[in-house]
Design brief:
alpha/beta, 6 helices
């Protein structure tokens, strides 16, 4: 199970923003892509009525769980490194609690950039706060609080800098213990 699965449903910053209607304007085009077990999309599904929703995860078991949480979504197994979608096919791509697990997050960000026509919402654990909180709750002590599978670590500043290589940063938020970024497609970006 992923560390993100341990949080209470609905506690994700992206879900909160969409749930409050702050990103409603972004969802005008009828397509949205996300990943995972479907908790995020389940929590914002009221704002997705009339939208085509596509969700992918590399784990087929997560997709089976997502089928129960968001039965109206089109679901599939895919790697963030090779998304099976056309260029600029989505107005919004959501990628939450994924990049910290990837051997090559640059490839994933290039793919997200390729498939979004406008926006992305990205989130990762806020380091070192994430590890400190893990230690405080007595987990992963032998790994100094590092959640198994987390191979990339970003602070607010370093994540914002990292993402800005691919997207124009519209907004950054840091609800404990995550970093969330709303990015917009850069018009002068070179691969």
């Amino acid at each position: 199970a992923r560390a993100a699965d341990e949080r209470r449903p609905g506690a994700h910053p992206a879900a909160d923003r969409v749930g409050r209607g702050e990103l409603h304007g972004i969802l005008r085009r009828p397509r949205l892509r996300s990943r995972g077990e479907g908790i995020l999309l389940h929590n914002i599904q009221g704002h997705l009525v009339g939208k085509n929703v596509f969700a992918v995860d590399i784990d087929h078991l997560e997709i089976e769980t997502a089928r129960k949480n968001i039965p109206s979504a089109k679901l599939g197994v895919a790697s963030a490194h090779y998304l099976p979608f056309s260029d600029a096919g989505f107005d919004l791509v959501i990628c939450c609690e994924v990049l910290e697990h990837l051997d090559n997050p640059d490839l994933a960000l290039r793919e997200i950039r390729r498939v979004t026509a406008k926006y992305c919402i990205l989130s990762v654990p806020n380091e070192p706060i994430w590890r400190i909180l893990n230690i405080c709750r007595g987990t992963y002590i032998s790994d100094l609080g590092n959640t198994p599978g987390h191979i990339n670590h970003w602070s607010r500043r370093s994540f914002k800098q990292y993402v800005s290589d691919y997207f124009q940063i519209v907004e950054t938020t840091t609800p404990l213990p995550w970093i969330g970024v709303l990015g917009h497609q850069k018009t002068n970006w070179k691969a």
